[in-house]
Amino acid sequence: MNKQINLRSIFLLIIMSTLLIAGCTKTVQDKAPLENNKQIVNVYSDRYYDADKKLYEEFTKKTGINVNVIQGKSDELIERLVREGQDAQADILIVSDAGRLYKAKKEGLLQSFNSEIVNNNIPQNLRDKDNTWTALTVRARVLVYSKDRVKPGQLSTYEALTSPEWKGKILIRSSTNTYNQSLLASLIEINGKEKAKEWAKGLLQNFAREPQGNDRDQIKAVASGVGDVAIVNTYYIGIMLNSQDQEEVNAAKKVGVFFPNQETTGTHINISGAGLTKAAKNKENAIKLIEFLTSEEAQKLFTEINFEYPANPRVEASKLLKSWGDFKKQNIELTKLGEHNKHAVEIFNEIGWK
């Protein structure tokens, strides 16, 4: 009897030990791709697009380097890098705002890298002067208007949207959104803080509703008659026109695209960009991925699938983007979007733009 009990105990002990070892082994393997595998690059990204996934897959096919992506909001990813310090797992930070790249650099989270390939692919005005980050794509913040209720001749500038004729007709998302913060930051750089504040206050008085939803929701609201004009990023229109959701397609077809400030300071642009983290453990692989994402092959995919403007000037914009015509862009340093971000947020809070 005792012999049977002892044998049973030994058998159970062996099983438990095996399971424990297996569990420990799995934990090590989960960490291995992040820390010890030379054929990997780790990316913190606030982008969630199909184009990005396809490009990462193509990069892996070409190089054998796996791309491990951790997604989150830009500020959350930057805070995570600060918190993790030199233990950060990310080799690359990809965010959809030049202002956030400026912030990451200022926090000491990025390092310089020298790549002739990137320098040849991307113009100097779309790269950090210290080579800590580069643009991958460009987007314009335009006016979309109801084709039924607004004539293009009624539109001119961002500033003109504060006119009484637009009372109760303007749609735009929350001031907490980076796109609006950078738009206001650009107007601070161009017109000065006081005039930028007057603009924001005047626009607020013309809102059709309290800010809510994303850029797609503003387009849908114009289409449904909630307001007549919305301020949105161009690529959202392209995505909606090519959506599998017929409601989105129908809404996008009801609006026109207008590039403001063509006779004055130009339409506001921003970028999605990639920076090399200071804590990068796979620096060589990271630079290879950034080089690939700035290549003509990758840039074509960005514009054809996600309807963003290429940052590489050798690549033509998609047919849809070209159908809207060329446009004059704001001529300011992209770093100014980061430098003036604090003032932009202060203005939004002061005037009550939620």
Describe the fold and architecture.
- Belongs to the bacterial solute-binding protein 1 family.
- It comes from Thermovenabulum gondwanense.
- Strands 1, 2, 3, 4, 5, 6, 7, 8 and 9 form a nine-stranded mixed sheet that branches.
- The N terminus is likely disordered.
- The chain folds into two domains: 155 residues, Periplasmic binding protein-like II (D-Maltodextrin-Binding Protein, domain 2), CATH 3.40.190; 152 residues, 3-Layer(aba) Sandwich (D-Maltodextrin-Binding Protein, domain 2).
- Helix 6 packs across helix 7.
- The N and C termini lie far apart (76 Å).
- It is built from 15 helices and nine strands.
- With 354 residues, the chain is an alpha/beta fold.
- Please provide the ordered H/E string of secondary-structure elements: HEHEHEHHEEHHHEHHEEHHEHHH
Helix/strand class: alpha/beta
Mean pLDDT: 92
Helix content: 40-55%
- Into which percentage range does the β-strand content fall? 5-15%
Q: Tell me about the largest β-sheet.
A: 9 strands, mixed
